[in-house]
């Protein structure tokens, strides 16, 4: 068997048959176009519509730059501030002067009491017509009221001050009525309306007197001396300020008057009182007194009194004690004490303290109004 030779080695060209070409497929007409079948129907999930893009909201600009409720609140605060300032002015200038006045008809009673006193008392059974009681209790009652039969002058008050001295078991020893005219605002004695002293029931018109100083203490008492009327000496004496003290739960100023033994007049008395055989003699009336007043300074109310008093008659070298006692007012109680405490509290506030508080409140309201109502930039508010 002879192997086939490699043309590449022999160099001889060997003819190769032409490539076979497949005949074209027979012509087939295109199939008609059929659309694809839709997928099986399924329920589509609900879809959330997309939010529209944010649009600028319509704006409302306040002409004043602040909401109406701020304007209302601001007006209210300013109104309150003005109100408190006006009241702060009116209270001390209008209200207080109409409250701090003495009553036209006080209807007030004050008692002074003493133990171990000595007093001259009429006694028809005694040959001398009177006798001295020793070591007895004494009550001095002062009652002040409106003088109904007096002719008033303008705004002055006219009072009757009735004083009665009594000894338990012996009755009334002495009595007198003093007519007083007084300025109700200043408490100064005016002597306008028939001031007089009635010490004898047989002489109801009494004798005219001219008052000096003070009988009722003024409002707003200060720490200095005051002239005080003394009915026994018939002139004013100086009451010197000596300090402060609590009495019956009320803060008081203390004032002291001192009168040494002095002649204050004369008195016709039975001669037998002095060992004289004459039926009546004219004796010198002697008087000494030391008195301490406890005064509530705002109202001038007398909270208490201590009175060391001595009255004597002297004739032909003989001294007869007519009255000797260490008197003191008892503690205040009941309505009298309540009213005194109310006046002590109320009057200082009306005079000035309440105005300070009202001014501070008024200013606070003004500051609050300024903070709320101060100018601001225009504010956009949803319409």
TrEMBL record:
Keyword Membrane on entry: yes
Family annotation (InterPro entries): PorA
UniProt region (Disordered), positions on chain: 1-66
Pfam families hit by this protein: PorA
Superkingdom of origin: Bacteria
Membrane-spanning intervals of the chain: 76-96, 354-373
Compositional bias segments (type: Pro residues): 16-56
Stated name of the protein: DUF3068 domain-containing protein
């Amino acid at each position: 068997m002879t192997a086939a030779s490699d043309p590449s080695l022999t160099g001889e060209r060997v003819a190769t048959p032409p490539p076979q070409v497949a005949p074209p497929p027979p012509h087939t007409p295109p199939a008609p176009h059929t659309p694809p079948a839709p997928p099986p129907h399924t329920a589509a999930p609900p879809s959330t519509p997309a939010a529209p893009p944010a649009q600028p909201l319509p704006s409302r600009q306040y002409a004043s730059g602040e909401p109406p409720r701020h304007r209302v609140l601001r007006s209210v605060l300013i109104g309150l501030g003005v109100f408190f300032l006006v009241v702060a002015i009116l209270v001390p200038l209008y209200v207080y002067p109409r409250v701090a006045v003495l009553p036209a008809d006080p209807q007030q009673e004050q008692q002074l009491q003493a133990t171990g006193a000595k007093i001259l008392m009429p006694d028809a059974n005694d040959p001398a017509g009177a006798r001295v009681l020793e070591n007895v209790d004494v009550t001095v009652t002062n009652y002040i009221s409106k003088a109904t039969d007096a002719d008033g002058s303008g705004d002055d008050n006219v009072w009757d001050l009735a004083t009665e001295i009594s000894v338990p078991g012996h009755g009334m020893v002495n009595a007198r009525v003093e007519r007083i005219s007084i300025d109700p605002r200043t408490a100064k004695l005016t002597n306008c309306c028939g001031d007089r002293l009635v010490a004898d029931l047989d002489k109801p018109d009494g004798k005219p007197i001219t008052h000096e100083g003070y009988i009722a203490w003024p409002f707003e008492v200060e720490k200095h001396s005051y002239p005080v009327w003394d009915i026994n000496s018939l002139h004013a004496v100086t009451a010197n300020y000596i300090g402060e003290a609590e009495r019956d739960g009320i803060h008081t100023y203390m004032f002291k008057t001192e009168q040494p033994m002095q002649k204050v007049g004369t008195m016709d008395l039975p001669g037998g009182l002095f060992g004289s055989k004459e039926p009546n003699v004219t004796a010198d009336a002697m008087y000494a007194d030391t008195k301490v007043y406890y005064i509530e300074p705002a109202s001038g109310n007398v909270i208490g009194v201590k009175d060391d008093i001595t009255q004597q008659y002297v004739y032909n070298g003989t001294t007869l004690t007519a009255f000797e006692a260490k008197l003191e007012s008892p503690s205040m109680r009941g309505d009298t004490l309540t009213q005194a405490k109310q006046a002590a509290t109320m009057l200082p506030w009306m005079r000035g303290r309440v105005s300070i508080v009202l001014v501070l409140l008024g200013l606070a309201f003004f500051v609050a109004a300024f903070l709320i109502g101060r100018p601001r930039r225009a504010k956009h508010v949803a319409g």
